[in-house]
Automatic annotation (TrEMBL):
One Pfam family of this chain: KYNU_C
Name the record gives this protein: Kynureninase
Record-linked PANTHER family: KYNURENINASE
Catalysis: reaction(s): L-kynurenine + H2O = anthranilate + L-alanine + H(+); 3-hydroxy-L-kynurenine + H2O = 3-hydroxyanthranilate + L-alanine + H(+)
Any one GO BP annotation for this protein: L-kynurenine catabolic process
EC number(s) given by UniProt: 3.7.1.3
Organism whose genome encodes this protein: Raineya orbicola
Domain of life: Bacteria
Keywords annotated in UniProt: Hydrolase, Pyridine nucleotide biosynthesis, Pyridoxal phosphate
Length: 417
């Protein structure tokens, strides 16, 4: 084992992203840095976060309402330099991105514009076992629109005794629903299994049958390489507090493909979506900004946006290409070492290889799953527990190391010894 430990240390020494770890606060346990494998749930705090907020607090203290108009990033246009940073991560044009609200709120707003049940085309296709908030949003939204959720939400589930969905299965279901299918709304990455869905193929097939396609990217953004514009995805939303490290409850965002910007889509509007030249005229008549900003309702929440910006700048420096390359290796080693050291006690239900998995492994414990999670916690390894028997581990390329991944696999083995 010591050979392998030396090898892990060697991988860390060669890691060209290694200096990014020092840009984050790492929580402590008994005087030592924890091994934090929960970046899929709440990403760690960039050290620039408090400075970013303090700057805006100072501006508020010094200028009051004038803060909307002074400084290099006046509040009334605070989003402008942030959007290109986010667009980079999404594979989008800055005009296709708006920063607003929270994820579930945005899901509802996007459904207002993109769920258009007509005649027999009413059905919505989702992955079975989607995150509960998404299930509740779809159920209540359809109900509100006078469409029966029981009859019209179709869930595609893994085959018997399997944990993951075959892409073929998803595509066949879309083809079968054909002209009854109004909308496909899928996760980019399933929160429970860590499976990365083939978003481009799903989008193509759904468009072939005339359906609209949206993705919930909560677990995908900042984790997998996205190319939403080129893939022709109609819309998407996400949260910023998981892989994007923008703080608990951080501000969400939406993607609206450019092809929809000049359509007269139904929407719930607000003054911040009004064309800028007329926003302050306080006149009747909603004229939306002809891009994703036209969906923004309210003026910007400056403090959460300052946090978001501080974190996105780190991503910009690291680049998604390099992050994904390291992530693939890091998770690969976690996988290999877990199987080698503790393979008889666990089953990893996440697909083994990219592009079907990213920075998360879901470990199904054949026995004593909850105790395993507790044991790791007691030993300063933070993972997360999901009923009925899964420990999720997310090695994040910005701040996790090969040595940490090695030590984690070793602790799992030690627990079962
Ligand atoms: C984390 C997560 C959410 C959380 O929704 P909020 O509105 O941010 O509380 C919703 N959906 C998915 C798929 C998630 O992973």
């Amino acid at each position: 084992m010591s050979d392998k430990f030396a090898f892990a240390q060697e991988l860390d020494a060669q890691d060209e992203l290694k200096h990014f770890r020092s840009r984050f606060f790492i929580p402590q346990h008994e005087g030592k840095e924890v091994i934090y494998l929960c970046g899929n749930s709440l990403g760690l705090q960039p050290k620039t976060a408090s400075e970013a907020i303090q700057k805006e607090l100072n501006k508020w203290a010094d200028y009051g309402v004038e803060g909307h108009f002074v400084g290099e990033q006046p509040w009334w246009q605070f989003r402008k330099p942030i959007k290109p940073l986010l667009a980079e991560i999404l594979g989008a044009k800055p005009t296709e991105v708006a920063i607003m609200n929270s994820l579930t709120t945005n899901l509802h707003l996007l459904l207002v514009s993109f769920y258009n049940p007509q005649g027999k085309r009413k059905k919505v296709l989702m992955e079975a076992g989607a995150f509960p908030s998404d299930q509740y949003a779809l159920e209540t939204h359809l109900h509100f629109r006078g469409v029966s959720p029981d009859e019209n939400i179709i869930e595609v589930a893994p085959q018997k005794n399997e944990h993951i969905l075959q892409t073929e299965q998803i595509l066949e279901t879309i083809e079968k629903l054909a002209d009854e299918l109004a909308l496909v709304i899928f996760g980019g990455v399933n929160y429970y299994t860590g499976q990365v869905f083939e978003m481009q193929k799903i989008t193509q097939k759904a468009h072939q049958v005339g359906a609209v396609v949206g993705f919930d990217l909560a677990h995908a953004v900042g984790n997998v390489k996205l190319d939403l514009h080129a893939w022709q995805v109609d819309f998407a939303t996400w949260c910023s507090y998981k892989y994007l490290n923008s703080g608990p409850g951080g501000v969400s965002g939406i993607f609206i493909h450019e092809k929809h910007h000049n359509k007269d889509l139904p929407r719930f509007g607000g003054w911040w979506g009004q064309v800028e030249s007329e926003r302050f005229l306080m006149k009747k008549g909603f004229k939306p900004i002809p891009d994703a900003d036209g969906w923004q309702l309210s003026n910007e929440p400056i403090l959460p946006m300052a946090l978001h910006q501080a974190s996105l700048q780190v991503f910009h420096e690291a680049t998604m290409d390099k992050l994904v390359a390291k992530s693939n290796l890091l998770t690969h080693y976690l996988y290999e070492w877990l199987i080698e050291f503790a393979g008889e006690h666990i089953e990893i239900i996440t697909p083994k290889n990219p592009p079907h998995r990213a920075a998360q492994l879901s470990i199904f414990a054949k026995s004593k799953g909850k105790e395993l999670h507790q044991y790791l916690l007691k030993n300063g390894i933070i993972t997360d527990w999901r009923e009925p028997n899964v420990v999720r581990m997310a090695p994040v390329p910005l701040y996790n190391t090969f040595t940490e991944v090695f030590l984690t696999a070793q602790k799992v083995a030690e627990f079962y010894k």
